[in-house]
Structure formats: C-alpha cells, structure tokens
C-alpha cells in the first residue's frame, strides 16, 4: 500500500486540541477539542532552564483555567532542529503502546514501531518545521506560538496534540492511547471575567486550553460543552456518530460571520460548533435538533443585562437519547 493510501485510510482526529487548517464557515482553524490538556500524559515543551513543568510529574501545575488573550502570539525565536545526538540524550516525556514522545525546546519527536500519522492542524512547512523518516516511523516537528497541531497514529490509534497558547511561554504536548469509550468532558467552572472591549475571534490554540463554563451546572456534559476565551464563547458537541443538525430556534446571536460562526465538523459530520460573541445588553437562545438514534436537542442560552457587570447566564442543556 502506498503512503498516500495509508494516509487516506488513517482516522482523522476531530478537534479539540485541534489547530487545524480545516475551516468553520469562514475558514477559521478547527480544533481537536476532545483532547484534554490536563491529561496525565501531558508535558510542557520548554527550553532548558524554563519554569514550565511536565504535568506527568507529581505536583506539576495544571494548565491555566483562564487565558489572557494577547492581540497576537508572543514572538519567539525558533530553534534549530536538534541533532541525532541531542535526541538520543533527551528523556522520553510520554509513551503509549508502540509510540514515544520526546521534547527539546520547541521541537517534538514522535517514534513509533510502524504506521503513519494522520495530521490535522498546523504542523508548519514540510522540510522546515516538520520531518518524517521511514514512512513516519520517526516524526520531528517544531511548535510555534499561537499554533495547535494534532494527529492520530494509523494502526495504534495513539493521539498527539501540541498547543502553544498566546499566554504561554512554551508549548504543551500530549500523547495518549486510543480509548474505546468517549473521553469524559471536564466539569464546568465559574464564568471568568468577560471584557467589554471588542476582541477578535480567538485562535484555536487558545480555545484548546479554554475553561469549560456553565452558570447553571457544575456537572460535565454528556457530549457538549461551553468554553470561554475573552469576549467569545463556544458551544461544541461531539456525538461519536454521523448526525443531522438543524436549529429549531436561533435568536439574539448577532450577525453571522461577525458575532457568530457556526459549522458542522468532521468528515462524518459527527460534531457541531457555534462560536459567538458575548455582548452587554444581549439575550440569546438557541435549540439545536439532531438525529442520534432518535431525535435529541441541545439548548444554549446567554444573557448579559445592560446594567450588569457580567453576563448573568451562559448555560446549556442536553436532551440527548
């Protein structure tokens, strides 16, 4: 089988941890959101001497629960590709069945016994930012500020995610086993401070580490979550099987392409995403009908009274079979 045929047959990782070059309705990057950066296999890819620590180590700090979005990713001078001797001396930061991961500064090296990686997100320029040897058995790539790169390993199903949020001093990398059951969603937290100032739509690297919020519940959703970055909120649902989607109600979210962006995700159309701006004085409601075995619905609501310092409601309700 040719290398091209292997890549076409490889499963595509939908994204979370997604910094994909796939698009929403306006060509925004797509994330592989199902990968949780608090995973025990997560490692901070920091240069020697930095204060970033691997979350695989006991007592390592968890990823930030709130991201202070910068206007642009912090410029960082890229390092040269590590030598073979440097990789041989570098410790293994994470390993799963048949695959291992090493990190040197802004570079990540993946080694697997066989198979290839199905890549999603921003891996950079071939021959400059990423290199493959022996049909993907060894893969090296450089992370850059403001990017998210994800991949699924053909044969083993292992998943890699490397994200460099705008507020971070170094990238965060994870390598995980394939799971037979859907990954549990994070429990929502209290709503962070929402700025009044107009902000651009966040990049996928920031969405990937954004806190999951809900003003009505602290229980994790079954398949859906709300995340917040700055002035923006995201509703995302991953169903695990192909489905049809239709908005029965959709009001108060502002102009499409300006204040809200909606898209069905994945080759199999098994996920959906709505990004929307949180504005003072706004009140919005939506009901998304979907086919999943039998008809299910997801309700999303937010309200920010004009005289309130912060939104008083930002919540979802799942009515899924």
Give the radius of gyration: 20 Å
> What's the number of extended β-strand segments?
18
Tally of contiguous helical segments = 3
Gap from first CA to last CA: 40 Å
Major sheet size, sense and barrel closure: 5 strands, antiparallel
How many separate structural domains?
A: 2
Spatial shape: globular
Mean of the pLDDT scores? 78
Q: H/E order of the elements?
A: HEHEEEEEEEEEHEEEEEEEE
| Class per helix and strand makeup | mainly beta
Measured as a percent range, the helix fraction is under 10%
Low-confidence stretches: 1-71
Biggest sheet, spatial arrangement of strands: 1-10-9-8-5
Strand content: 25-35%
Describe this structure in words.
By secondary structure, this protein is mainly β. The chain folds into two domains: 3-176, no CATH class; 204-319, Immunoglobulin-like (Sandwich). It is 6% helix and 34% strand. The strands form four sheets. Strands 1-10-9-8-5 form a five-stranded antiparallel β-sheet. A five-stranded antiparallel β-sheet has the order 2-3-4-7-6, with no helix packed on it. It has a four-stranded antiparallel β-sheet with strand order 11-12-15-14, with no helix packed on it. It is globular and about 60 Å long. The N and C termini lie far apart (40 Å). Mean pLDDT is 78; it is low at 1-71.
Give the structure's gist in a few sentences:
The protein is mainly β and 321 residues long. It is 6% helix and 34% strand.
């Amino acid at each position: 089988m040719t290398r091209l045929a292997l890549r076409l047959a490889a499963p595509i990782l939908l994204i979370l941890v997604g910094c994909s070059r796939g698009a929403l309705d306006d060509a925004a990057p797509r994330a592989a959101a199902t990968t949780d950066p608090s995973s025990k296999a997560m490692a901070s890819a920091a240069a020697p001497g930095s204060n970033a620590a691997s979350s695989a180590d006991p007592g390592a700090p968890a990823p930030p629960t709130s991201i202070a979005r910068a206007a642009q990713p912090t410029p960082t001078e890229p390092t040269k590709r590590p030598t073979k001797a440097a990789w041989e001396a570098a410790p293994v930061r994470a390993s799963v069945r048949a695959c291992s991961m090493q990190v040197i500064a802004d570079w990540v090296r993946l080694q697997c016994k066989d198979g290839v990686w199905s890549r999603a997100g921003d891996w950079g320029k071939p021959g400059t930012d990423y290199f493959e040897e022996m049909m993907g058995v060894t893969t090296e790539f450089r992370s850059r500020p403001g990017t998210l790169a994800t991949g699924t390993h053909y044969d083993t199903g292992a998943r890699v995610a490397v994200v460099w949020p705008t507020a971070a001093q170094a990238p965060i990398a994870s390598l995980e086993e394939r799971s037979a059951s859907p990954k549990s969603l994070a429990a929502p937290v209290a709503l962070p401070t929402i700025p009044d100032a107009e902000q651009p739509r966040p990049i996928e690297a920031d969405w990937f580490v954004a806190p999951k919020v809900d003003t009505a519940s602290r229980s994790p959703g079954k398949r859906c979550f709300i995340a917040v970055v700055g002035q923006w909120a995201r509703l995302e649902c991953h169903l695990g099987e192909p489905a049809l989607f239709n908005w029965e109600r959709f009001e108060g979210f502002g102009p499409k392409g300006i204040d809200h962006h909606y898209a069905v995700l994945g080759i199999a159309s098994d996920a959906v995403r709505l990004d929307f701006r949180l504005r003072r004085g706004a009140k919005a409601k939506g009901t998304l009908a979907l086919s999943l075995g039998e008809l299910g619905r997801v309700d999303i609501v937010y309200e920010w009274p004009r005289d309130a310092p912060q939104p008083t409601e930002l919540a979802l309700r799942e009515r899924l079979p």
